[in-house]
Design brief:
Layout (H helix, E strand, L loop, with lengths): L7 H12 L17 E6 L4 E6 L11 H11 L6 E6 L12 H6 L4
Parallel strand pairs: 2-3
Antiparallel strand pairs: 1-2
C-alpha cells in the first residue's frame, strides 16, 4: 500500500479561499491580495505554516491578525495544526499587492 499523498493544489486553494476572507482593517482589500502572505507550507501531517507580514511593524492589528489567520486556517477540516510566522524581511510595499488590489485602491 502506498502512502496517501496530499492533494496540495486542492488544499492550497482552500487555504487561499480562507485567506481571502481576512481583511486588513485599514484597507478594504483582503490580506492575500494585499501581498501580506509570503508563503504557505503544508506537510504530510496536514500541518500548515504561513509566513506573512504586516503593512508595518506598528500595524494596529499586529497582535490580532496572525491569530485570526491561524484560527481560520485551523478551521479547515483537513488541517491538523497551523503556525503563523510574522516577518518583515522583505518589508511589505505596495509592489507586493495584486493588480486587483491596486485597482481596488485606485493605484492603477
Amino acid at each position: 500500500m502506498s502512502e496517501t499523498t496530499i492533494n496540495t493544489t486542492e488544499l492550497g486553494e482552500k487555504i487561499v479561499r480562507v485567506l481571502k476572507t481576512i481583511y486588513d482593517p485599514e484597507i478594504p482589500v483582503d490580506i492575500y491580495e494585499l501581498g501580506l502572505i509570503y508563503d504557505v507550507f503544508v506537510n504530510q501531517d496536514y500541518e500548515v505554516k504561513i509566513l506573512m507580514t504586516l503593512t508595518s511593524p506598528n500595524c494596529p492589528v499586529a497582535e490580532t491578525l496572525p491569530v485570526e489567520v491561524e484560527e481560520k486556517i485551523k478551521s479547515i477540516d483537513e488541517i491538523k495544526d497551523t503556525e503563523v510566522e510574522i516577518t518583515f524581511d522583505p518589508p511589505w510595499s505596495q509592489d507586493l499587492m495584486s493588480e486587483e488590489a491596486k485597482l481596488e485602491l485606485g493605484l492603477l
